[in-house]
Amino acid sequence: MTKTKGLLIMDVDSTLIQEEGIDLLGEIAGSGAEIADITSRAMNGELDFAEALAARVALLKGLPETVFAEVRKQIHFTEGARDLVAALQANGWKVGVVSGGFHETVDDLARELGLDYVRANHLEIVDGQLTGKTTGDIVTKEVKLASLKKWAAELGLELSQTVAMGDGANDLPMILASGIGIAFHAKPVVREQAPYQINTPNLALALDIIKEVKGDL
């Protein structure tokens, strides 16, 4: 078995994809502006993420579970997403996502790209409708960092052999702990602290940073 050469973990909303999934759900629920405002403040580090998530999810109560198929049609992969994943996997890397969004939308995206790892939140659904609550552990900044460490350990990798990339404040711990931490088209608080940054919305540019640091993939 060929040893894994590296691990790249990235955020989903406004990183792997162009949109914020919960904002799209909010628009359908008729609470778009309110949810988008909470999302923006949470990503800038102005609000506790878990509290902000609970407040937004509560506004989704009553939506039918068929809403996920509707939202999927409105989601677009960020430019370079497929190229980034394909290039890394072809060179013996593993690629995963860890998201403050929801498995109900993220799993489909991960399958489409053939990702190796997925972690996200679960929305509670009863009798075909969203209850306005989540189930299980919330994916906080601490959980994102723990996921990076867990997956690296499973692969026999040091953190120096990992790359973490995201745009929001809850991505900072994993960005700072990884071997190559990248602020991707990120909020000011993330750009100020991340070792590397990509300010053009093209994920394939991460390949240039990895090659620059490591000399190759």
UniProtKB/TrEMBL annotation:
The keyword Transport does not apply. The keyword Zinc-finger does not apply. This is phosphoserine phosphatase. Keywords: Amino-acid biosynthesis, Hydrolase, Magnesium, Metal-binding, Serine biosynthesis. InterPro entries: HAD-like_SerB, HAD-like_sf, HAD_sf, PSP. GO terms for molecular function: L-phosphoserine phosphatase activity; magnesium ion binding. Pathway: Amino-acid biosynthesis; L-serine biosynthesis; L-serine from 3-phospho-D-glycerate: step 3/3. It catalyses: O-phospho-L-serine + H2O = L-serine + phosphate; O-phospho-D-serine + H2O = D-serine + phosphate. One of its GO terms (cellular component) is cytoplasm. GO terms for biological process: L-serine biosynthetic process. Its cofactor is Mg(2+). Belongs to the HAD-like hydrolase superfamily. SerB family. It comes from Pseudolactococcus laudensis. Its EC number is 3.1.3.3. The active site is at D11, D13.
